[in-house]
Design brief:
about 250 residues; alpha/beta; 6-stranded mixed β-sheet; 4-stranded antiparallel β-sheet; 10 helices; 10 strands; about 35% helix; globular
Length: about 250
Protein backbone atom coordinates (compact mmCIF):
# COMPACT_ATOMS: atom_id res chain seq x y z
CA UNK A 1 0.00 0.00 0.00
CA UNK A 2 1.46 3.35 -1.06
CA UNK A 3 1.07 6.05 1.58
CA UNK A 4 0.02 9.52 0.46
CA UNK A 5 -0.14 11.37 3.80
CA UNK A 6 2.12 10.18 6.62
CA UNK A 7 1.21 12.12 9.77
CA UNK A 8 3.09 11.58 13.03
CA UNK A 9 2.31 13.17 16.41
CA UNK A 10 0.54 16.13 14.81
CA UNK A 11 -0.96 18.78 17.11
CA UNK A 12 -2.42 22.18 16.24
CA UNK A 13 -3.29 25.29 18.23
CA UNK A 14 -5.35 28.39 17.42
CA UNK A 15 -3.66 30.79 19.82
CA UNK A 16 -4.03 29.21 23.27
CA UNK A 17 -6.76 26.79 22.12
CA UNK A 18 -5.53 23.33 21.15
CA UNK A 19 -7.67 21.91 18.35
CA UNK A 20 -5.76 18.70 17.46
CA UNK A 21 -3.92 16.38 19.85
CA UNK A 22 -1.05 14.14 18.78
CA UNK A 23 -2.67 12.73 15.63
CA UNK A 24 -0.79 9.85 14.00
CA UNK A 25 -2.29 8.41 10.81
CA UNK A 26 -1.22 7.12 7.40
CA UNK A 27 -3.62 7.84 4.54
CA UNK A 28 -3.19 5.52 1.54
CA UNK A 29 -2.85 6.75 -2.02
CA UNK A 30 -5.65 6.31 -4.57
CA UNK A 31 -8.27 5.53 -1.97
CA UNK A 32 -11.12 7.50 -0.40
CA UNK A 33 -10.61 8.18 3.31
CA UNK A 34 -13.59 9.53 5.27
CA UNK A 35 -13.15 11.72 8.37
CA UNK A 36 -16.15 11.45 10.71
CA UNK A 37 -17.06 12.76 14.14
CA UNK A 38 -19.46 15.19 15.88
CA UNK A 39 -19.40 18.93 15.27
CA UNK A 40 -16.37 20.67 16.76
CA UNK A 41 -14.28 17.49 16.98
CA UNK A 42 -11.46 18.75 14.74
CA UNK A 43 -12.45 17.18 11.41
CA UNK A 44 -12.26 20.33 9.30
CA UNK A 45 -9.19 21.57 11.19
CA UNK A 46 -7.43 18.31 10.37
CA UNK A 47 -8.49 18.52 6.72
CA UNK A 48 -7.25 22.10 6.37
CA UNK A 49 -3.95 21.17 8.00
CA UNK A 50 -3.34 18.79 5.09
CA UNK A 51 -2.83 21.74 2.75
CA UNK A 52 -1.81 24.39 5.30
CA UNK A 53 -5.02 26.35 4.80
CA UNK A 54 -5.38 26.83 8.55
CA UNK A 55 -2.38 29.17 8.35
CA UNK A 56 -4.73 31.81 7.00
CA UNK A 57 -5.94 32.12 10.63
CA UNK A 58 -3.53 34.30 12.67
CA UNK A 59 -1.89 32.72 15.72
CA UNK A 60 -1.96 29.15 14.44
CA UNK A 61 0.94 26.86 15.29
CA UNK A 62 1.65 23.15 14.92
CA UNK A 63 3.82 20.37 16.31
CA UNK A 64 4.69 17.00 14.78
CA UNK A 65 5.23 16.07 11.14
CA UNK A 66 2.96 15.88 8.11
CA UNK A 67 4.40 14.39 4.92
CA UNK A 68 2.95 14.01 1.45
CA UNK A 69 4.62 11.25 -0.56
CA UNK A 70 7.69 11.69 1.65
CA UNK A 71 7.89 15.50 1.48
CA UNK A 72 7.55 17.40 4.77
CA UNK A 73 4.77 19.87 3.95
CA UNK A 74 5.68 22.07 6.92
CA UNK A 75 9.37 22.36 6.08
CA UNK A 76 10.54 26.01 5.92
CA UNK A 77 11.78 25.23 2.41
CA UNK A 78 8.26 24.42 1.21
CA UNK A 79 6.13 27.25 -0.21
CA UNK A 80 2.52 27.02 1.11
CA UNK A 81 1.17 27.96 -2.34
CA UNK A 82 2.92 24.91 -3.79
CA UNK A 83 1.36 22.76 -1.07
CA UNK A 84 -2.08 24.02 -2.03
CA UNK A 85 -1.38 23.26 -5.67
CA UNK A 86 -0.43 19.67 -4.79
CA UNK A 87 -3.36 19.29 -2.38
CA UNK A 88 -6.62 20.50 -3.94
CA UNK A 89 -9.54 21.63 -1.77
CA UNK A 90 -13.31 21.60 -2.31
CA UNK A 91 -15.43 23.35 0.31
CA UNK A 92 -18.81 22.68 1.89
CA UNK A 93 -20.49 25.49 -0.04
CA UNK A 94 -19.71 25.78 -3.72
CA UNK A 95 -17.78 28.99 -4.32
CA UNK A 96 -17.38 29.76 -8.02
CA UNK A 97 -15.86 33.18 -8.65
CA UNK A 98 -18.95 35.33 -9.29
CA UNK A 99 -17.46 37.61 -11.95
CA UNK A 100 -15.91 34.79 -13.99
CA UNK A 101 -17.30 32.56 -16.71
CA UNK A 102 -17.45 28.77 -16.42
CA UNK A 103 -14.21 28.48 -18.39
CA UNK A 104 -12.46 31.24 -16.43
CA UNK A 105 -13.43 29.57 -13.14
CA UNK A 106 -11.84 26.29 -14.17
CA UNK A 107 -8.65 27.93 -15.42
CA UNK A 108 -8.22 30.46 -12.60
CA UNK A 109 -5.57 28.45 -10.74
CA UNK A 110 -3.51 27.80 -13.85
CA UNK A 111 -3.58 31.46 -14.85
CA UNK A 112 -2.64 32.45 -11.31
CA UNK A 113 0.39 30.18 -11.70
CA UNK A 114 1.42 32.00 -14.87
CA UNK A 115 0.19 29.55 -17.52
CA UNK A 116 -0.55 31.46 -20.74
CA UNK A 117 -0.39 28.79 -23.49
CA UNK A 118 -3.87 28.88 -25.03
CA UNK A 119 -3.68 25.39 -26.46
CA UNK A 120 -2.65 23.93 -23.11
CA UNK A 121 -5.38 25.89 -21.31
CA UNK A 122 -8.02 24.59 -23.72
CA UNK A 123 -6.84 21.03 -23.13
CA UNK A 124 -6.87 21.42 -19.35
CA UNK A 125 -10.30 23.06 -19.45
CA UNK A 126 -11.88 20.12 -21.26
CA UNK A 127 -9.95 17.51 -19.28
CA UNK A 128 -10.90 19.02 -15.91
CA UNK A 129 -14.56 19.40 -16.84
CA UNK A 130 -14.64 15.82 -18.10
CA UNK A 131 -13.07 14.52 -14.88
CA UNK A 132 -15.71 16.48 -12.95
CA UNK A 133 -18.46 14.91 -15.12
CA UNK A 134 -19.55 18.38 -16.26
CA UNK A 135 -18.22 18.74 -19.80
CA UNK A 136 -21.30 17.46 -21.63
CA UNK A 137 -23.54 19.81 -19.65
CA UNK A 138 -21.54 23.02 -20.19
CA UNK A 139 -19.40 22.58 -23.34
CA UNK A 140 -21.71 24.85 -25.36
CA UNK A 141 -22.07 27.56 -22.68
CA UNK A 142 -18.51 27.99 -21.39
CA UNK A 143 -18.82 31.77 -21.56
CA UNK A 144 -21.75 31.92 -19.15
CA UNK A 145 -21.12 32.98 -15.53
CA UNK A 146 -20.18 30.10 -13.26
CA UNK A 147 -22.85 31.23 -10.79
CA UNK A 148 -25.54 30.65 -13.44
CA UNK A 149 -25.21 26.88 -12.93
CA UNK A 150 -27.33 24.84 -10.52
CA UNK A 151 -26.00 24.11 -7.03
CA UNK A 152 -24.81 20.63 -7.93
CA UNK A 153 -23.20 21.87 -11.15
CA UNK A 154 -21.46 24.67 -9.24
CA UNK A 155 -19.96 22.11 -6.85
CA UNK A 156 -18.71 20.03 -9.78
CA UNK A 157 -17.33 23.24 -11.32
CA UNK A 158 -15.35 23.82 -8.12
CA UNK A 159 -14.07 20.24 -8.32
CA UNK A 160 -13.02 20.88 -11.94
CA UNK A 161 -11.22 24.05 -10.81
CA UNK A 162 -9.31 22.05 -8.19
CA UNK A 163 -8.43 19.31 -10.71
CA UNK A 164 -7.28 21.71 -13.45
CA UNK A 165 -3.95 22.37 -11.71
CA UNK A 166 -3.35 18.60 -11.55
CA UNK A 167 -3.09 18.12 -7.78
CA UNK A 168 -1.81 14.90 -6.26
CA UNK A 169 -4.61 14.68 -3.72
CA UNK A 170 -8.09 16.15 -3.28
CA UNK A 171 -9.66 17.27 0.00
CA UNK A 172 -13.43 17.66 0.32
CA UNK A 173 -15.10 19.32 3.30
CA UNK A 174 -18.77 18.24 3.44
CA UNK A 175 -19.08 18.57 -0.36
CA UNK A 176 -22.69 17.37 -0.51
CA UNK A 177 -24.21 18.98 2.60
CA UNK A 178 -25.88 21.81 0.66
CA UNK A 179 -27.10 19.64 -2.24
CA UNK A 180 -30.30 17.78 -3.02
CA UNK A 181 -30.29 13.95 -3.27
CA UNK A 182 -29.89 13.88 -7.07
CA UNK A 183 -26.93 16.27 -7.04
CA UNK A 184 -25.45 14.37 -4.07
CA UNK A 185 -25.64 11.10 -6.02
CA UNK A 186 -23.73 12.70 -8.92
CA UNK A 187 -20.98 14.01 -6.61
CA UNK A 188 -20.68 10.61 -4.94
CA UNK A 189 -20.39 8.87 -8.31
CA UNK A 190 -17.71 11.40 -9.27
CA UNK A 191 -15.75 10.71 -6.07
CA UNK A 192 -15.81 6.97 -6.83
CA UNK A 193 -14.40 7.68 -10.28
CA UNK A 194 -11.72 10.06 -8.97
CA UNK A 195 -10.26 7.44 -6.60
CA UNK A 196 -8.69 5.68 -9.60
CA UNK A 197 -6.43 8.71 -10.15
CA UNK A 198 -6.36 10.64 -6.89
CA UNK A 199 -6.08 10.28 -3.16
CA UNK A 200 -9.37 11.67 -1.80
CA UNK A 201 -9.98 12.72 1.81
CA UNK A 202 -13.56 13.66 2.63
CA UNK A 203 -15.07 15.12 5.80
CA UNK A 204 -18.71 14.13 6.21
CA UNK A 205 -21.42 14.12 8.89
CA UNK A 206 -23.36 11.58 6.83
CA UNK A 207 -22.62 8.08 8.13
CA UNK A 208 -24.29 6.42 5.15
CA UNK A 209 -22.19 8.50 2.77
CA UNK A 210 -18.98 7.54 4.57
CA UNK A 211 -19.98 3.88 4.45
CA UNK A 212 -20.88 4.05 0.74
CA UNK A 213 -17.89 6.01 -0.49
CA UNK A 214 -14.81 5.38 1.57
CA UNK A 215 -12.19 2.66 1.74
CA UNK A 216 -10.99 3.74 5.17
CA UNK A 217 -12.60 5.84 7.92
CA UNK A 218 -11.09 7.90 10.74
CA UNK A 219 -13.24 8.81 13.77
CA UNK A 220 -12.25 12.03 15.56
CA UNK A 221 -13.56 13.20 18.93
CA UNK A 222 -12.49 16.30 20.89
CA UNK A 223 -9.51 16.86 18.63
CA UNK A 224 -8.17 13.33 19.00
CA UNK A 225 -8.07 10.46 16.53
CA UNK A 226 -10.06 7.77 18.35
CA UNK A 227 -10.04 5.02 15.73
CA UNK A 228 -8.88 4.49 12.16
CA UNK A 229 -9.44 1.38 10.08
CA UNK A 230 -11.07 -0.04 6.98
CA UNK A 231 -14.55 1.43 6.64
CA UNK A 232 -16.24 -1.96 6.92
CA UNK A 233 -14.50 -2.54 10.27
CA UNK A 234 -15.35 0.92 11.62
CA UNK A 235 -19.05 0.47 10.86
CA UNK A 236 -19.48 -3.25 11.52
CA UNK A 237 -16.97 -4.10 14.25
CA UNK A 238 -15.25 -1.03 15.74
CA UNK A 239 -12.65 -1.64 18.42
CA UNK A 240 -13.46 1.45 20.49
CA UNK A 241 -16.80 1.78 22.38
CA UNK A 242 -16.87 5.52 21.57
CA UNK A 243 -16.67 4.77 17.86
CA UNK A 244 -19.46 2.20 18.16
CA UNK A 245 -21.65 4.68 20.03
CA UNK A 246 -21.11 7.35 17.35
CA UNK A 247 -21.62 5.24 14.22
CA UNK A 248 -24.72 3.64 15.76
CA UNK A 249 -26.22 7.10 16.42
CA UNK A 250 -26.19 6.99 20.22
CA UNK A 251 -24.36 10.34 20.38
CA UNK A 252 -23.14 13.12 18.08
Amino acid sequence: MEVAFDIQGFSLWYGALQALFDVTIQIPAQQVTAIIGPSGCGKSTFLRALNRMHELTPGTRIAGTLRLFGDDLYSPAIDPTQVRRRVGMVFQKSNPFPTMSIAENVLAGLRLNGVRDRGFLRERLEAALRMAALWDEVKDVLGRPGVSLSGGQQQRLCIARALAVEPETLLMDEPCSALDPIATAKIEELIRDLRTRYTVVIVTHNMQQAARLSDRTAFFYLGKLVEYDETRTIFMKPANPQTEAYVSGRFG
